[in-house]
Write a structure and sequence with these properties.
Blueprint: E1 3-6, H1 8-22, H2 29-45, E2 52-54, E3 57-62, E4 67-74, E5 77-85
Parallel strand pairs: 1-5
Antiparallel strand pairs: 2-3, 3-4, 4-5
Length: about 100
């Protein structure tokens, strides 16, 4: 099993999303963290199960949230390029 590593921009997106969901009226912050962890574990266990979207970058959806991890498989690890909001311009992360 390969280990996932978040690039700094993806880490920043994760923190931003975490603050956003923690501050919602119903406070789904804990559920958000659970779904993020589940998504990362799914990627690490079976990285090739998710579709290639662009230039060997794969996309794995985060259940119950409008987010997806974009990642590349490289020797020895998985590099998470972005935690993309699905309503955002789809190519903003290119160049990471």
């Amino acid at each position: 099993m390969k280990t996932a590593r978040l690039l700094k921009p993806a880490e920043n997106e994760l923190v931003e999303a975490m603050f956003y969901y923690e501050n919602q009226a119903e406070g789904p912050g804990c559920e958000f963290i659970d779904r993020i962890n589940e998504a990362v574990v799914r990627i690490e266990k079976n990285p090739e199960a998710y579709p290639v979207t662009w230039n060997a970058v794969r996309r794995s959806l985060v259940r119950q949230f409008p987010l997806a991890f974009l990642y590349k498989i490289v020797p020895g690890e998985l590099i998470i390029l972005a935690l993309m909001h699905l309503k955002r311009h789809p190519s903003y992360w290119i160049g990471r």
